[in-house]
Design brief:
Layout (H helix, E strand, L loop, with lengths): L3 H25 L5 H5 L17 H12 L7 H12 L20 H7 L7 H14 L6 H8 L13 H9 L6 H8 L11 E2 L2 E2 L1 H10 L9 H7 L1 E3 L9 E5 L6 E9 L2 E4 L8 E4 L3 H6 E6 L3
Antiparallel strand pairs: 1-2, 3-8, 4-5, 4-8, 5-6, 6-7
Length: 297
């Protein structure tokens, strides 16, 4: 009993101090509040949205530079300029003109509109946007773009102008996160040859329905889809691209899946199976892999 009383006293003090400890922890970790603990957990996907042809880490910088622009410069135009001028930072110096950096600036332009490191896209992209704004992008986008590219005539590049080239490239910049997210929503749906609904779907209809959901129309059959898309090297595959397979149930192109990264695809495989995530380059599908492709509007 003599030993028990001191223990009870210590326990009482601990219990009295427990609320103070909880308050202190919640003050520094708000997510531990009672309401948060009792409510369902929501997990936000903070991964960068994949974009065709644009390094994922640079796309977020383009979005930020566009959002900070005073004249409505679009991230698509910034991506197209980055591709045209330095191939997203791969070519930082033009030995003939002396233009330098991610945006291929001349010295006076960078001195006026730049800040920081011209080779760093985090500094160069806002500078590109400032140059475009200063050259009238808000009122005459084509003229501002041509001015940025050093074009003084509408057909400065022969059949087109710099602005026309940017138009063509900007049209290819399409966020692909939506394609993968929509495809994931089909996981578990049973395969049915010729099926085109939640009751059963085959490979080409899965692709057709997923892309239709983002406003892109594709043919119904895998072989026809293969003839309407842009073929790309395997090394350029990005989430949302298509992977095609040959000589599965018939000769030639006969199957298609949606690439999701890391050598994996969302695939409606065959009878008796369901839409699932499967490898592209190994196993059965690796033996029948025919090529990679990109859907261009």
């Amino acid at each position: 009993m003599k030993l028990l009383l001191p223990l009870l006293g210590v326990l009482g003090l601990s219990l009295l101090g427990l609320p103070l400890l909880v308050v202190a922890v919640v003050a520094t970790q708000p997510w531990l509040a009672v309401g948060a603990l009792l409510s369902p957990m929501t997990v936000r996907d903070e991964r960068p949205v994949a974009v065709r042809g644009v390094p994922s880490e640079q796309w977020s910088l383009m979005l930020a530079a566009a959002a900070g622009s005073s004249c409505g410069v679009t991230p698509q135009d910034l991506a197209a300029i980055a591709k045209t001028e330095s191939d997203f930072g791969k070519n930082l110096l033009n030995p003939r003109s002396g233009a330098f950096g991610y945006g291929q600036f001349d010295a006076p332009t960078w001195a006026t509109f730049g800040a920081g490191d011209p080779n760093n896209p985090a500094d160069a992209l806002p500078a590109i946007a400032r140059v475009l704004c200063a050259r009238g992008y808000a009122t005459n986008r084509a003229r501002a773009l041509n001015s940025y590219g050093g074009c003084t005539t509408p057909l400065c590049l022969g059949a087109t102008g710099y602005a026309g080239q940017i138009d063509q490239l900007a049209a290819l910049v399409q966020p692909l996160g939506g394609v993968v997210a929509i495809a994931r929503d089909w996981l578990g749906v049973r395969y049915h040859f010729g099926g085109c609904s939640r009751n059963g779907v085959d490979c080409s209809c899965l692709v057709q329905l997923v892309y239709r959901a983002v406003g892109i129309t594709l043919p119904r059959i895998a072989a026809d889809q293969w003839t309407t898309v842009q073929h790309i090297p395997d090394s350029q595959l990005a989430p949302g691209d298509l992977v095609f397979f040959a000589n599965t149930y018939e000769p030639g192109i006969s199957h298609v899946g949606i690439y999701i990264g890391n050598g994996q695809q969302i695939n409606a495989p065959t009878e008796g199976q369901v839409v699932s995530i499967q490898p592209v380059f190994s196993g059965y599908w690796g033996q029948h892999f025919a090529g990679a492709a990109r859907v261009v509007r």
